[in-house]
Each structure stands twice: as C-alpha cells, then as structure tokens.
Amino acid sequence: MLSLELARALRAAGVRWQPQRGDVFVIPDRELDDQFFVLSDMVVETVNPPDGPPILAFNGTTEWALDSLEAQEALWLPHEDQLRALLGTAFVSLERVPGPPEGYAVTAGGSRCVDVTPEAAYARAVLALLD
Prior knowledge:
By secondary structure, the chain is of the alpha+beta class. It has helices at residues 4-12, 80-87, 118-130, and strands spanning 24-27, 32-38, 44-47, 55-58, 68-70, 75-76, 91-97, 103-108, 111-115. Strands 2-1-6 form a three-stranded antiparallel β-sheet, covered by helices on one side. The longest helix is centred in the C-terminal third of the chain and has 13 residues, at 118-130. The protein is elongated, with a radius of gyration of 16 Å.
C-alpha cells in the first residue's frame, strides 16, 4: 500500500481523484490516519450532488458521528495499476532491483525511479513526470 507521504505528494502535485469502487483512502487529520477505508457500494459510496463536489457517504455506520465527507477531504491511496494508468504512454518498464535492499524501478518519461515497492516506484515516476 502506498505511504501517506507519497499520497500527499501526489495530491500536492495535482493528481486528482475520481472516486471509484475499490479505491483505498484515509481520512487525514481526524485521528484516522491509520484507518484505511475501501470505497464500496455496500459501506462507503460516492454521492455526486448536482451542485457540489463528490461526497463519500458512510452507510451502516450508526456508531460514528461521521456520515459523509467531501471526497477532497479524504486522501486517496492509489493502487499500482492506477498509478501506472496515470503514467499513460510515458510508461516504459517496471523491473525488480536486486538488493539488499531489494526494490523496484519504474522507467517513464525519461526518468528511472526506484523504491522498495512497485506502488512507491510508480508514485515517484508520476511525481517526476509532473515535475
């Protein structure tokens, strides 16, 4: 799973989230940074009001005071395939880097970015592409 640090960097660099079923997110700065949520039609769903930004609706959570929040208040933790899609045609390759420490390298848009997980390497490549 992508680190909060890299997820925050992606958001700061301008990566926008269009919430979809299966997406993972956290609710930062509300003492929920270590609680991961998965967007689902059964528990958390996206509501698109006609006059505002998407809202994440928490269904079946009567024990919470949190019923919904704007999607922009949540921090998206994109999966490997979502990060690769963000690279688009700039993506060249993903390769395992022998260790120690072992890691992964993503080559995209003339940059080679290395990190310990594929998700982190892809995120760094997206950030390099946006820089």
